[in-house]
Amino acid sequence: MSDNQRQPSTRWQELKGAPTGTELRTNGWRQEAALRLLNNNLDPDVGEDPERLVVYGGTGRAARSWDAYDAIMDQLTSLDDDETLLVQSGKPVGRFRTHEMAPRVLIANSNLVGHWDDWEHFHELEAEGLMMYGQMTAGSWAYIGTQGIIQGTYETLAKCADQHFGGDLSGKLVVTAGLGGMGGAQPLAVTMNGGVCLVADIDADRIQRRIETGYCQEIANDLDTAIERALAAVEAGKPYSVGVHINAADMYEELLERDVIPDVVTDQTSAHDALEGYYPSGYTLDEADALRERDPERYRTESLDTMERHVDAILAMQRAGAVAFEYGNNIRGQVKEHRGRDDAFDFPGFVPAYIRPMFCRGQGPFRWLALSGEESDIYRTDDAVLELFPTKERLRRWIDLAQEHVEFQGLPSRVCWLGYETTRATEVGLDDVDAVDPDDELTERAQFALRINQLVADGAITAPIVVTRDHLDAGSVASPNRETEAMKDGSDAVADWPILNALLNCAAGADIVSVHDGGGVGIGNAVHTNNHVVLDGTERAAKTAMRVFTTDPGMGVVRHADAGYETALEEAERSNVEIPMGGEE
Questions:
Q1: At what angle do helices 496-508 and 539-562 cross, to 10 degrees?
Q2: Contact 557, 573 (CB under 8 A)
Q3: How far apart are CA 410 and CA 47, in angstroms?
Q4: pLDDT tens by residue, 421-480
């Protein structure tokens, strides 16, 4: 877009990341949290290309333009405790008097009316400066770098190991591609599960960045060297990861030619966007960028041709015995839609393969950030979550692994998969917290939030914690090629559910609520929502946390119960979630 071509905002250049400490630049901690989250997205250690406002996923932006960024900053700085700011595809467009318990910011990104809901129309509007692509957590100011996706990737691979390999990936080879903001978590998630990862990326700088931040161990100069090292680690049963500077489709085909069949094959290239996310075979990075500028239609055609080869190679590996799954980038959908290949879906997506049982119980990627910037505040939250859930051995293992291996990026942050499952306040020692009745049934997420809010109030944590999540969550997304693929009742494309999620979380008083189109699978392929709650130690925050962290995971239980999943119906009965028609049509 033309107004993105000017020099980055002077204000951004002065900050280059989130402000930290306890001094407010705004009229309250909820506004301050929004300001810090926006800038955390654009921290050079967090975002992929912050000078272009790009956070991740090829074109996922935090703001539409630098003028819009400055205007958002101005609005957040002066926003009162009873006002709500409206942001439309990265541009502030209105500010209204609401009330203290209402959201401080409402965001809508990339949403188009159904008949016009495609990349072609989106790019026309984007070129006119009327829209931006918000991805998922980019445009909702919830991105925390590769550390944000690491546990989800870890959990997915752990479930894969449980199903196919007896519980871990020791002595197993995982082949994948894509080391951007999302895919960059893959090598570390593989080694955390004991396996060996061989990963391709056409951008050598991305590989190097993952090595510098501890997500990948080595880079190999050529594929043969990488294969040799990977297979040696497999033979030795030692965790290991190696990145190769090569086009993904080329690497997969060459592995087949060498008869190197992995135990697991997947992919996290930015295939959702054939023009600005994925790279066609036959070009260096610079050559491909030049082709995109010179002849975007040819670029798109060659990207789709390469994607078809990429999918064919995955299918061939699957036929040869590999466990294959798509990791949410819509490469199967692209090949089916643009190349007429129904067999592209002959390998499953990761959600129906591994994650849906957790979604049925309202479990998902719950994350939080320390607004102080102090790592010690996150370590205190680690202690709190383990104290609250002492019997969750996988959670304890995750926290131990995260503390050892996951480097903080920008504001110190953590992710845990927590869900709905309720427990009485008295049983978890939260009956003396302001706003809590001893008989209150508290969800896992509410328990955690209330404990953290109490620690902030007591000064054990030095500044407020803001709690958010990935849009990839139990009840917040309709995405037929990913989160809602192959729903039991065929309701894959029903977008009422994320809209209800956003409306309900507004009613519950979340501090930021957002609704997006597209996400990681592309315009027209998904509707998804997000929310944030600022735990500032007040009774108001405690009440908000109790509501939002019941409504939000509860939507996951309701959505899957309505689709007829027994696990969700069991959770609803166990945790007293009201299902008016008992999951019947």
A1: 160
A2: no
A3: 9
A4: 999 999 998 988 878 999 899 999 999 999 999 999 999 999 999 999 999 899 999 999
Query: Which is the catalytic residue, given 216, 360, 416, 506?
Result: 416
Residue listed under structure tokens 């699957």: 318
Give 87-117 pLDDT, tens digit per residue: 999 999 999 999 999 999 999 999 999 999 9
Q: Compute the mean pLDDT over every residue in the chain, rounded to the nearest whole number.
A: 95
DSSP per-residue string spanning 493-504: T-THHHHHHHHH
Token pair recorded at residue 279: 């790279």
pTM attached to this predicted model: 0.90
- Residue 278 makes CB contacts below 8 A (sequence gap 6+) with 269, 270, 271, 303, 306, 307
Query: Tens digits of per-residue pLDDT, 502-546?
Result: 999 999 999 999 999 998 899 999 999 999 999 999 999 999 999
| Matching residue, tokens 């501090």 | 511
Q: What is the DSSP string of 407-458?
A: ---SS-EEEEEE----EEGGGGT-TTSTT--TT-EE-HHHHHHHHHHHHHHH
360 a catalytic residue: no
Assess contact for 268 and 325: CB atoms under 8 A: no
| Helix and strand counts by DSSP (H, E) for the chain | 20, 19
**Ordered alpha helix ranges (H), 320-366:** 331-339, 350, 356-360
Amino acid letter, residue 20: T
393 phi and psi angles, rounded to 5 deg = -65, -35
Report H helices in 284-328: 285-294, 296-319
Q: Judging by DSSP bridges, how do beta strands 105-109 and 196-201 pair with one another?
A: unpaired
